[in-house]
Amino acid sequence: MKKLILSIFLIIYSFGCFSQSSATELDSLKTILKKQKKDQKFSTLIDISNIYARIDLDSSKLYANKAYKLSEKIGNDSLKIKALMFLGHTSWERGNYAEAITNFKKSLAISTVIKDTTTIADAYNGLGIVYSKLGNLNTSISYYFKTLKMYEKLNDSLGVGATYLNIAWDYRKLKEYTKSINYNNKSLEIYTNLKDSLHMAMVNNNIAGSLNELGDYEKSLKFSNISKLYFKKLQYERYTAYPITNIAISYDSLHNYNEAKKNYLKAIQLHTLNKEPYELAFLNNALANLNYNLKDYKKAALIGEEAFRFAEEVSAIEFMVSSSKTLARTYEKLNDFNQSNKYLKLYIKFNDSIISTEKLKAIAEIETKYQTEKKEKEILSQRANIAEKELHINQKNTQILGLVILAIVVAILGYLLFNQQKLKNKQLQKENELKEALIKIENQNKLQEQRLTISRDLHDNIGAQLTFIISSIDNLQYGFKITNEKLTNKLSSISEFTKETIYELRDTIWAMNKSEISMEDLQVRISNFIDKGKIAATGIDFNFNVDKSISEELKFTSVSGMNIYRIVQEAINNAVKYADAKTITVNFIKRAGTLKINIIDDGKGFDINITVFGNGLNNMKKRALEIGSNLHIETQIHEGTTITFEV
């Protein structure tokens, strides 16, 4: 299931963030606020707003508004832009994007006049975040690269790291995963060096999201839980909703729907508490899809409508696309084709607007422009350094000339000594290599002798004993004239099982007697097995096809060759016993650098989601893993079964 993963966006303010947020802190600050004079209250109001930003956005906005009104009374532009940045932050967190843009642009205008570079960068970053949420990605990335240039000028590592994180997220929206991973890694490197726990939490959450997109759900759960633990330790309780969302997605993709549903509902509860419609649009759509997969289409439609309403409320086009798609297919299942057609049209409309070639080109041009300017600055800096170095070189040329002759003499002597030592080292190396080669050959000979001894013992002792068992059973049947049908059948079954064991033993001895198995050996062995199958199962047509381009000289280790043979053998046995097949085909196909093997039957197939695998299938999977491969099973009821692996 392909899902879009939520990311966390935090604006990096020049005044920083508190590491704790508790009732004690708030009570203490409110007590201080009552005792302060008007001119002293601004910082305390901002501190209270900052603490509330983690737990109660309405209260955060209330105190940011008080700070802004106070800054207007005081007439201090520096205080005014700080309050506006907080108001912009609380606005976009609450999904009021128009208000957020207004606040950020007001802050940008004032900070440009007073030349406050840090706040200009922060305002660009805030605008980038809002436009990203609105789905206007070329505008958001344009703002991010403006932000990046300014933070780089300010040597603000924290700001650069946060901007890399935001750029990475937008590239993920555009499905430019390579660029996204590149910027995430840049961000992670910065926060690791700074030992910044808050942003490490954010990066771990983004890594978890990327792993979900790549299908590595177990690993994603690990990173999500690390992120969640960071946020809890920092007491950023409401931000735990983001890793909880990734945890829900992992469980959803692993078909653990109970755990997925529990985590979706927990994340929805947190985002509802903080009135965040953007995140609620995503989560409700994910929950609707979960109910769709559980075939509870009525509930899926109800929750899907809620997702579309939240997305429409904040004009989040990306989620209007995903929720309209969910609703279109859900109403189709409910046979409500009018509603299905309505949402299908909306899906096509919004999807066409979110990603286009022109947008991708514009975004690429923005990044190219940024990279070009950066390289030009680096070139100018390098030229200045080169000019300075040339000046120093000219001053030292006279001194160097005097040292050159001495250096040449020393170099010649050193060269002679070095060559002499090099020859000695080569001689010692050759001697050591020869010793190692002799030891290796001796060990290989001993190993081969042990193999032959073991195989002889298996053949002479166990083989003879098994043959004796068969002979004894036959003598029992014919010598004692047993009339009990059940006993006769049981003895025949034991005799047949013993014969099969002898065949298996011969295969094992065959593999043990070889240090390596050629393609020709393997082909002959499989052909012999198929010939026996034709005799035993007369109603089945067996085919064995090998690409002519596969060399008979292709070699496998004895272990690998035996594992390949056993997988093919088990697959054919299963098809004969359980599939009711008319045709069984084994194909050896050459691929670039690999050998693809598939076993196909046209039997009755089975439902892979409800069938419990027995020892045979599990052993086949284990053997595939032992040779560095994965066993793929494709089957449908009445459509036959295909088993594929590559070596």
TrEMBL record:
All copies of domain Signal transduction histidine kinase subgroup 3 dimerisation and phosphoacceptor, residue ranges: 451-514
Reaction equation(s) it catalyzes: ATP + protein L-histidine = ADP + protein N-phospho-L-histidine
Keyword Nucleotide-binding: yes
Root EC class: transferase
Domain Histidine kinase/HSP90-like ATPase: from-to ranges: 563-646
Signal in keyword set: yes
Signal peptide feature range: 1-19
Pfam family, one: TPR_12
SUPFAM superfamilies: ATPase domain of HSP90 chaperone/DNA topoisomerase II/histidine kinase, TPR-like
InterPro entries for the chain: HATPase_C_sf, HATPase_dom, Sensor_HK_TwoCompSys, Sig_transdc_His_kin_sub3_dim/P, TPR-like_helical_dom_sf, TPR_rpt
PROSITE patterns recorded: TPR
Coiled coil: 363-390, 418-451
First and last residues of every TPR repeat: 121-154
EC number(s) reported in the record: 2.7.13.3
Protein known as: histidine kinase
Natural source organism: Mariniflexile fucanivorans
